[in-house]
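Why run this: before we spend reagent on co-expression, it is cheaper to look at a predicted model of the complex and decide which construct boundaries make sense. The entries below are exactly what would go into the expression plan.
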Amino acid sequence: MEELLVGFGALFSSPVLIAAIAGAVAAGIVFGALPGLTATMSMALFLPFTFFMPPEVGLSVLMGLFVGGIAGGSIPAILLNVPGTPASAATVLDGYQMTRKGRAAEALGISFIASAIGGLFSALVMSAAAPLIARAALSFQAPEFFVLAIYGLSIIAAVAGDSLVKGFIAGLIGLIVGLVGLDPITAQQRFTFGSYELYNGLSLIPVLIGVFGLTQVFVLINESFTGSKLPTLSGRKFPTWADLKLSATAILRGSLIGTAVGIVPGTGTDIGAFLSYSETKRWPKGKIPFGQGNPQGVAAADSANNAVVGGTMIPMFTLGIPGDAGSAVLLGGLLVAGLTPGPDLFVGEQAGTVYTLFASVILANIFVLAFGLLGIRLFVKVVRLPVAMIVPIIILLCLVGAYAINNRMMDVWVALAFGVLGYILVKFRFPVSPIILGLILGTLAESNYRRAMTFSHGDWTVFFTRPLSIAFWVLIIVSLVYVWHLSRKQKIAARAALDVLSGKAVHEAEEDKRTDDGAQTEGAEQAADARADAHKSDADERRR
Amino acid sequence: MARTDSSEAATQLQPEHDPAGEDAQDAVPVGNTRSDKIGALSIAAVLIIVAVYILMETTTYKPGAGGDPGAAALPRLMGIFAILAAVVLIFQTLRSPTRKATSPTRDGFRATGRVVLMMVVVAVGITLLPLLGYFLTMSALLYVSGFMAGAKRWWANLLVALISSWVTLLLFSGIFSVPLPMGPIDHLIGG
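The model came back. Tokens follow.
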């Protein structure tokens, strides 16, 4: 910790460094808010400029972009149902529903607070225990990765809504889409239909843009025709104290999960956010159900995705293993600056630079909070725009975003195809988030399953004999049992409510008979009976 | 409008406001409408067709070696799961009670027609993008989409289309160095 204080000393003695971090965070938020422009892309674009800066400034700029980019992705996710980056795919589940209920400002406020706390938490963990944790993360091998992916896929049950089969089918669609391209081990062509553009498979971002962004366009067109009302604003500019109190545990849990996920190389912000969302859903608080504008959903997803950023730095700084694409760019910057990752980085002259960087990440997260909360008034103006203006803006962002990721028209067509598919699924009450989960986790599961089977010479018990794998299997079983228990509890509660309803109906019918005081006509009796029958049959139908 | 269910899909199509969210668990109509059922059955049918295609396609893949289950293992598993899931969905759909649609069928058809038209417009826009260039195509696409979303003032709609296309052209092409498809006009206006 003493080294970190020295790092802060160096940071606060350089106004240029502080200004650079502030500028990078602001630029990162803008990049993240534009669908198709990811945090990694912004870092890659700025990387050449950092070559001409002092190492501390250049690397701090990259980190500021990373932190700001992940936080900024939640702005369109909450306001428009279009995730700015894959990291915000889980944020849309409750964030956009909050906007629809007039709580856009509160959702944004919770998002920025959660992002900042998650980021700060992981930065502190990184500063305090990086070398120690990195060694433990190395014990993660193919069998553990496979079981982790299966655990991730069990989240489908949590985001499936009221029909597990429909959620499962949506997840299968994602898994099948993930099969397209060359297979990860033997490079066998799968479902490429002879098109070389499909050799690398379908990129995640065009699929994400299609499933959330263009689907939203079609939903809005449908609603504009049927005369549905636009979301209003509650008038609040910040989250309520009750919301914050409710979300505190979710933020803490998300910070822990995000940091842990980030430490494991090869995972990422999106997986961290979905895992945290799923875990938070297992411990619900308050009256608002998840998926219908529960602030805990936003808090869980956003605290985790920003915590992943700090987590990914741990193996990157200590072992030279980048946890995801963003930290890979950062590793490039580190090497260009003449800093070789490894235990030696934390001793001697280099330690000063490294701890200044750690202090910069902490400051970057504070800037995220400040810029986010200050900008809420500006951001929520999007909600006030009429549908006739929002629809063209979403189309513009979606098409340009899908194109910008690889600079090819094929991705724009992919986005449209998934927009159409997403709309069809939404129309027939299928959840769409599992598609993204399937796509992200399918590749991770397959490549690690096959790797594990290869090095164990076809012995499948390898997935059940390693301590970390066993721990994940236990988590999977606990999750599934919990989902089953919850659905059973809900069914019992619904049945009880319907019984009360039908009992009330019979009581009303009897009351009607009594008040007629014997002079009731046959018609009135029949009417009362008919009402009771109607209530009963309604109740029976619901029970069925 | 009554809330239909707690699923993400339904809530996306539910525009009503519920600032506190307290009534979120109110009156949950049970069952599917006739169109829901037709949709679910169609999706199940398509899923079965895709699954059969996957299973047939994987017969041509090379088998794995040295413990590796091969490139066909996961697709086959997905194919089998897809068929099972489709069958379960068919049974569930046929067994669930049918409830009346909340909006008149004719309105529903017209709204769907508008959405399909929007999809066609976007597809035409994407086709024309490399031919006519970014600014011209995107401005036209945004104008038409704004009009279809209910824009009342043609000039305001046109202004939004032109300005947003131009700003994004400058931003993406000039600052972010994204090589957007260029036409003659794009070069003239700073692309």
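Residues 34-95 of chain B form one domain. Residues 1-28 of chain B have pLDDT under 50 and may be disordered. Bring this page to Monday's planning discussion.
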